[in-house]
Amino acid sequence: MAKLSYSRDEIMAEHPYAKPHTEAGYRLHGGFDAAGHYISPRTLNRWPAIRAWQEALKARGGDLVDASPQLTARGNFPSVEQQSFLLELGLGQILWDALTITGVIEARGARLTEATAPDFQSIIVEDISQTAVGHLNKGLLYAHGLDEGGNRANGEGGHDAMWFAVRDLLFGKDAWPDPAVPESIGRPELGRLMPQIPKEYEEWILLLMNVLMIEERAENFFSFCNRVMRAPENFRDRREAALHAAELVDRIRQDEAPHVGYLSAVVSELRSVTFKTVDGGRIAGRAMIDPIWNGMVQWHAVTNLDHDRARVRDDLIAKLSARPNGAELVRQFDSLAMRQAA
Ligand SMILES: [Fe+2]
Ligand SMILES: [Fe+2]
Asked: Is this model's pTM higher than 0.90 or not?
């Protein structure tokens, strides 16, 4: 029987790295094994723990939620072909902005190091000490926050620093000014959705779902970055730097997998338990969670995606239109999307 109960120190434990992770003079999280393979930070026990909780859930007859097909169905906007077209025109600023915004949003993830989830055991009938939910405050949220925003205490950069390094490798430092960054990328509050449980718990369940959606949707951007940076026709004057940037993106992508892993375990576990309601009754997790989960997937996969695309599109159409042959460039840009869809 796999180990299901971990101390905070165990969740936070690092591999014994053969080589530290440094880029452009920055000390970054994680490290390399003797063969030179990148190892994500704090995953010595965290990964085995996540897998064990997922397996235990399945062994109890639960299934693991997976919204990734819906969240990644439409790919990135602009597409790889459209991005290459923009780069060819010297409009790298679109990608520069996307990379900067991603880095700033990653840095906000550091807030998770200061967050304490409420005691879910007090509103759940079953014993949750051997589940991911039971370990949120035993290192899962803290490790996640450090992964995203770095560890200021020991000067190790996290994903924020890694995205800025990717951007600088591709375009050079300070190539363009910093763009405006959206205030929030989670769904706005809609009033009480799960009145069966206290508000604080509802807020936490929604937070965890929102973060899981954002993590899963990021896959579109990872595969987009990978293809744009590895395409030989892009960044022709700095191919080596572009390939290195793609490798950094792969490392970030590898680090994100345990986030998706534990958050999908948490949401799935919440579906599988019985909640004690505020009026003294009981409700099956599925009955309460599923409608909320489905609404959340729909918002992130469709509503918010449309909104985001419109924002990026307005910006790049304005930039294309400012060119002397603007209308023709917009036509060419759009025809590249159609070719992909065909
Ligand atoms: Fe991240
Ligand atoms: Fe993440």
From this structure: yes
